[in-house]
Amino acid sequence: MPEKMTAKKEKSKLFHVEKRFDMPLWQSILIRFGFIIVALFIGLLILTISYGVNPFDAIGSMFVGSFGTEKRIWDFLRDGVLLLGVGLALIPSFKMKFWNLGGNGQIIIGALVSVILMINLGGVYPDAVVLLIMIPSAILAGAVWAAIPAIFKALFNTNESLFTLMMNYVSVGLVNAYIMFKYPIGSHVIPRIDDAHFPQLFNGSLLIIIIIAVLLGFMVYYLKFSKHGYELSVVGESMNTARYVGINVKKVIIRTIVVSGALCGFIGCLLACGVDFTVTPETGNNMGFTAIMAVWLAKFNPIIAAGTSFFIVFITRGMTKVQSDNNIMNDATPNLIIGLIYFFIIGCEFFVEYKLLINKGGKEMKITEFIKSLFTSKVEKVKLPPEAEAAVEEEEVK
Has residue 61 been placed in a domain? Predict the structure, then answer.
């Protein structure tokens, strides 16, 4: 009797969510594209209502912000590959279900070590020698910074999200402490360093693009074809299964997070020696958090992450241009629109992963079928009476 009542309750539910297994690729792309269009439409509507911005001019400004001049194109490519680089650094840890929220701190600590070496060794030794010391030092710094929470996770099962997040604040504190120690008087800002730069090809962007392209190829191989990539995937699926097949789970956790932190430290070195030529507490502009969304949208696929990274940079740079073109002094509205677009992109993943079934008259149907049934029922309601239908048929025969 209780089982029958439960079954009856299940049938009476208005909505039912079911996992998708057979959605074609074109359909998932269409859903994502549709949600982006809706988000842009709502965002532009907000701009129009708030500031009287012409929506078509705003769309034009967004493209000009990324592709308006040759310099903007190179800057767009540089920012896109740097964000991709951080995403590639985070993918291994996320595939292992280790939620590394410390990307910002690992980037900053790599940049800090690089700047310290630039200040103390630059001009004393040839730039090539300083770079040969600086790059491995920044990589090591990022690796050590990530290894600390990784060891605690592996040995004591601590919460990696909180641990890595708190490490961000420690790295920012170290930057502030170094600036106050080195420049106690004045604006407390490290001035631009003129020594030990990466070779500046095409405004300094081309070399960075080539480096990240090589890193992308390495990460694809590492995740899909290497033993380490296989082991971290198994640990991410189930630690018990990994132990059963003989994988040293603690070793895999520490090794994977060290790789993730090392790559973040390397990105910090690229920022310090190839883009900013200094370090501040804001170095990286929160790329560690932005990259999380980029790789999550890509389902932790390095190739797809390239597309999501460039899309995020396009939206960010585009809205900055819209803001400047329309003299919008308040950052709230542009940031609201960017957040709205991100929200819609994230929300659409629900409809990609799941299908919503609606209960109508004890029968479950898809949303499209439900809408179609509504129109069908309306048509049936306006059907002519039998006498009128007979008259119409006679008229047609004549």
Answer: no
